[in-house]
Amino acid sequence: MGNILSVRDLHWSASSTEILSDINFDIPEGAFVGLIGPNGAGKSSLMRCLYGVNKPNKGEINLYQENLLTLPAREQAKKIAVILQEHSNQMGLNVWDVVAQGLTPHKGLFEWTSAQDLQRINNAIDKMDLHNFKQQPFEQLSGGEKQRVMLARAHVQNPQLLIMDEPTNHLDVHYQIDMLNMVKQMGISVLASIHDLNLAAAFCDYLLVIDHGKIVKQGVPKAVLTEDLISEVFQTCVMIDQHPFSNADVQQEKIRITYSFDPSSQSHINKAGLHE
Fold first, then answer.
1. What CATH number was assigned to the domain covering residues 3-221?
2. For residue range 164-178, what is the model confidence (pLDDT) as tens digits?
3. pTM
4. What does the alpha-carbon distance between residue 45 and residue 25 come to, in Å, rounded to a whole number?
5. Residue 255 forms beta bridges with which residues?
6. 82: how many CB neighbours lie within 10 A of its CB?
């Protein structure tokens, strides 16, 4: 299995202040990769570099050896789908119309929607369990329902890589788990920034940890999410053990992160001089 995305020596600055530096990582084909880090670490800035909103000052971003930094926006949209944490009201469009937007990168300006296109849209709607919402205005949906619509649109777009900026933000527990399970079932390469470390440990095949604009650790969740790393990067005292619902198979073993609520333990971390 090769790498779908490779980032090398990426740097990005805003108003002469360096936000990202020395960013290097790969995303394997078919992997669900989580990007984690504290607030202000550079997660969203890095995401914006990958989908073309921020222009890096230096470095390379290659999708299957193709330079994304020089690829026209339309060609990028054929290869990468992006789901943000906040959604516009889609100008009063209903669910079916929003999902159909996934065809846009693949159609000419005056090209008609084919029977095959219609089947593709309806299949995506059914896959995301949105059949009863097809004619409902997008703006009237709940947060979890909107995320499912965005996933259906990405399914129609048929990208090689799906980038998601905090997809579980503002969702209740049921919708968080439902959303990540649906993403896993799409069977494509995914890069998602995730705040909840237990969700990241449970759903991601591989993790990237960013702190102060640099990737400080990367690897499988069990190797990355250690008590020492969480203490240093997130300024939080934790205990890590095997998740009670984890598969006994070592390859499927999941970890559980338990946080200390004792203020004295947090004070001890701060006094150790970590990121003060």
1. 3.40.50.300
2. 999 888 788 988 999
3. 0.90
4. 15
5. 242
6. 21
